[in-house]
Amino acid sequence: MNLHQFIDQGGVIILILIAMLGFGLIIMLWKFLILLSFMMKKKDRCKDCIEVLPQNSDISMVELVVHEKMHSLERGLESVKIIATISPLLGLLGTVIGIYTAFVSISVHGLGDPSFFADGISMAMITTIAGLIVAIPHYVGYNYLVAMMDKLELSFTQEIYTYVKLQDA
């Protein structure tokens, strides 16, 4: 079976899943490149945060400033999380539609020609597979990017707080 047949048998649900796959992969690549850029310019970003801090700032003030900076980096990740969550549900919807189609064809044509029944079951399996193919990389990518941001936030906070403590000394 080639890709064109795969898409034809999956119907509109496959097209939606393909669009979600492309959209999500673009967001994940964009976020990854932004995070790499942020890490490469971490010293400059720290200086920007330090300039905003008032004199004699405590750790809570540092955390607040860092949290605001990191919040802007999180933009777009919710879309990846949503794609990871709803793509298996769309696959399941395709499964239900395919099985329904199979039973309708049985009621109309009987069991004399199994190809009518097989088309619905084929759609059911293809949409299930496609939903999982979309969900798995988005789930992994989302968790990887969130872990990357958590590490970055921790090191960023530590670096700024160390600088603030050195200024106070």
UniProtKB/TrEMBL annotation:
It is a multi-pass membrane protein. It is found in: Cell inner membrane; Membrane. It comes from the Bacteria. It holds the Pfam family MotA_ExbB. Its main location: membrane. One of its GO terms (biological process) is protein import. One of its GO terms (cellular component) is plasma membrane. The chain crosses the membrane at residues 12-38, 82-103, 123-145. Keywords: Cell membrane, Membrane, Protein transport, Transmembrane, Transmembrane helix, Transport. Residues 60-156 form the MotA/TolQ/ExbB proton channel domain. Belongs to the exbB/tolQ family. This is MotA/TolQ/ExbB proton channel domain-containing protein. It comes from Sulfurimonas hongkongensis.
